[in-house]
Amino acid sequence: METLLAFIIGIIMAAGIYCLLRRSIVRLAIGIILISQAANLIIFSSAGLDRGKPPIISAEETALETAYADPLPQALVLTAIVIGFGFISFVLALIYRTNALLGHDDINNFNQTDKAS
User: Fold this and answer.
1) What angle do CA 78, 82, 84 make, to 5 degrees?
2) Within a 13 Å sphere around the CA of 46, how many CA atoms are in the beta-carbon half?
3) What is the rounded CA–CA span in Å between residue 104 and residue 16?
4) Which of 39, 63, 94, 104 is most exposed, with minimal Cβ within 10 Å?
């Protein structure tokens, strides 16, 4: 299962890098989103893919009698999702403002922004 997930992560990461190398700012945002999701999957897979092992130990237990999942990667990914959402919101606002000012999203023609204001 980890091997299949590694291939999927590689494909998502390659697609994200391909989008980052394009001249459109929309594709740049899509590339950032894909790379952040691939990074989240890397963190999940690095902790191991254990099914049926809850990350929470019940209050009645004093010692670890059964196997449990490590909650640290889940907390890291949750934090990364929240930070990524804020960053993506900022990038979408930047794309909207750029399109409103310039009327295009070509990164190579952004040297005209000083004249637009």
Assistant:
1) 110
2) 11
3) 22
4) 63
pLDDT 10s digit of each residue in the chain, 117 long? 788 989 999 999 999 999 999 888 889 999 999 999 999 999 888 877 777 777 677 777 777 777 777 788 888 999 999 999 999 999 899 889 888 888 888 887 777 655 555
CA separation for the pair 67, 42 (Å, rounded): 22
Joined tokens for residue 59: 């209050």
Per-residue tokens: 91: 């990038």
State the amino acid at position 112 in one-letter form: Q
Residue linked to tokens 């004249």:
115
**What's the CA dihedral at 93, 95, 97, 100 to 10 degrees?**
-140
